[in-house]
Specification:
It contains eleven helices and 14 strands. The chain folds into two domains: 253 residues, L-amino peptidase D-ALA esterase/amidase (4-Layer Sandwich); 119 residues, ArgJ beta chain, C-terminal domain (Ubiquitin-like (UB roll), Roll), CATH 3.10.20. By secondary structure, the chain is an alpha+beta fold.
Length: 387
């Protein structure tokens, strides 16, 4: 169901359409704020980062933006100077139609790498954009940024008189090195730029940066937030809590919709020396193809978790004799499992969400990460992605 206009953040309008980039589904989304917004963004660290990333990173240097342009089904990556020129032209076209300066716009692009935009179609499709804006339909926007996603991903929370809405796309090529995939947040809360940055970046790090589907970092990862302030000031603590909830809800929706996935995997590592160590070990587990396939088949081969921990060979403080491994509440190491325990483990691994808990017992830090199982469906989707 569309987000109720009365519960949506104030002051945002949108133009969502199909520009003929790949198929008959919407492939262009533009969301505009009535007024310049306090903004922040984090982007992929990929060496092959696309023009959308480099341009948006530049445009957000002043912590302000008034609109976000998203093109799906084409990443516009690895196209050289012409790719940069095409992206800049699109922002200039939107700027001319809306009266917003191009430097006050953010652009994101996702889809096939190495193919140029059908720029003539885009030019034609953007003609008259300024007169086609309507109150922002964030559900439609979430659908418009999809590629191989099967469902639109949206979450929202109230913060006093203000509203926060987040949308995201992503089901594959997900092992973030900053944010992940594409995710955008819009709010009418008034938040100072420094405060927004101090809340937004740690939240992304502990939600989207803790998500992995297939260990591949996208060239186009972008996470951006716009706060136009039209609802007035809110509690910083309440805002941070709402942002955390929205981001985590989107992360779980992505994990559930991941390419070929049938189950979510949640890995918590605690009693680590520091957060970085806990997260590293948790990621080693959730990224292991052998762990993923064991979860897919509900195979109680818990030793694959021990194997994944063992791959973190630089973490010399870890002592296998101190480690405890659990699946939900069933301890699998160092205890010896009998047939009854193994059957319990099969049942746990047959659930829609499988929890793996590792205690290193060498410190007090903890981290939780999310991922999914690995099925034949992943190969089917990605073996035919560009065709």
């Amino acid at each position: 169901m569309p987000l109720n206009i009365t519960s949506a953040p104030q002051g945002f309008s949108a133009f969502i359409t199909n520009l003929g980039i790949r198929d008959n589904t919407d492939d262009f989304v533009f969301i505009k704020s009535e007024v310049p917004s306090v903004a922040d963004g984090v982007f992929t660290q990929s060496l092959f980062a696309g023009p959308s990333v480099t341009i948006s990173r530049r445009n957000l240097a002043g912590s302000q933006a008034q609109g976000i342009v998203v093109i799906s089904k084409n990443a516009n990556v690895a196209n050289g100077a012409v790719g940069i020129a095409d992206a800049e032209e699109i922002l200039q076209l939107v700027a001319a139609e809306t009266g917003i300066t191009a430097h006050n716009l953010v652009i994101a692009s996702t889809g096939v790498i190495g193919r140029r935009y059908p720029i003539e179609k885009i030019r034609a499709g953007l003609s008259g954009l300024g007169k086609k804006l309507t109150p922002a339909d964030f559900h439609a926007a979430a659908r418009g940024i999809m590629t191989t996603d099967t469902v639109a991903k949206l979450a929202t929370r109230k913060i006093g008189n203000a509203t926060l809405v987040g949308i995201a796309k992503g089901v594959g090529m997900i092992e973030p090195n900053m944010a992940t995939l594409l995710t955008f947040f819009f709010t009418d809360a008034a938040i100072p730029a420094n405060t927004l940055r101090s809340i937004f970046r740690p939240t992304i790090d502990k939600t989207f940066n803790c998500l992995s589907v297939d260990t591949d970092t996208s060239t186009s990862d972008s996470a951006v937030i716009l706060a136009n302030g039209l609802a007035g000031e809110v509690s910083e603590q309440d805002f941070a809590h709402a942002l955390q909830e929205v981001a985590q809800e989107l992360v779980l929706k992505i994990a559930r919709d991941a390419e070929g996935a049938t189950k979510i995997i949640e890995v918590t590592v605690d009693s680590a020396v520091n957060y970085a160590q806990a997260k590293k070990v948790a990621k080693a587990i959730v990224n292991s193809p052998l762990v993923k396939t064991a979860v897919y088949g509900a195979d109680p081969n818990w030793g694959r978790v021990a194997m994944a921990i063992g791959k973190c060979e630089n973490e010399q403080e870890i002592n296998p004799e101190q480690v405890i491994i659990r699946f939900d509440n069933v301890k699998v190491y160092p205890d010896t499992l009998n047939e009854e325990n193994l059957e319990q483990l099969r049942q746990i691994m047959s659930k829609d969400q499988v929890g793996i808990h590792v205690s290193l017992n060498i410190g007090e830090a903890a981290a939780t990460v999310w991922g999914c199982d690995l099925s034949e469906g992943y190969i089917e989707i990605n073996g035919k992605y560009s065709t």
